[in-house]
Amino acid sequence: xxxxxxxxxxxxxxxxxxxxxxxxxxxxxxxxxxxxxxxxxxxxxxxxxxxxxxxxxxxxxxxxxxxxxxxxxxxxxxxxxxxxxxxxxxxxxxxxxxxxxxxxxxxxxxxxxxxxxxxxxxxxxxxxxxxxxxxxxxxxxxxxxxxxxxxxxxxxxxxxxxxxxxxxxxxxxxxxxxxxxxxxxxxxxxxxxxxxxxxxxxxxxxxxxxxxxxxxxxxxxxxxxxxxxx
Length: 230
Known about the structure:
- By secondary structure, this protein is an alpha+beta fold.
- It has one domain (about 10-230).
- Helices cover about 40% and strands about 20% of the residues.
- The chain is built from ten helices and nine strands.
- The chain is elongated.
């Protein structure tokens, strides 16, 4: 997965949480400004992120970006609805989305941001931020996969036995590949058992599984700032 994909979209340029101050351009001390900002950010999250707080049990998830935390300790960014894959092939992208649709999911690989309960995973993709979806949201995760992107290299070992008919390994190579990349051949019953749609959020976070979240916007709080003040 690429946690930073959504953040780099200029159409959804980040804006600082309303009311926070720039500690580099303010007459107050660094500590005073950061404490002021923490108070503003906490209130903003409480006001705009209640659905997440309630459904997650106030657990946190992380996302890595390439933004400079000196620019914004916390910012709001829109979640794009037309994400295109950068590190996986288009047919893999469609394959995953077909699985999600089959399971009844709203949050898919096109309209979601990718987050994880693991700060370590987020660090692979940039500066770590704690992320709060704003308002109502949908989410999807896979019970057997901690990282959907990583699974694009493990179809034979993981995806095919999990989502294709049991006799797939008895087919010849050409037939196997046809099954592998043809979404029409996905076994719906196996998908429904593995793909979790709008359920099990607390479990997904604790397991550090990748979670696809569809919402209009999200709040990003730089991890070190979060640990100091929250």
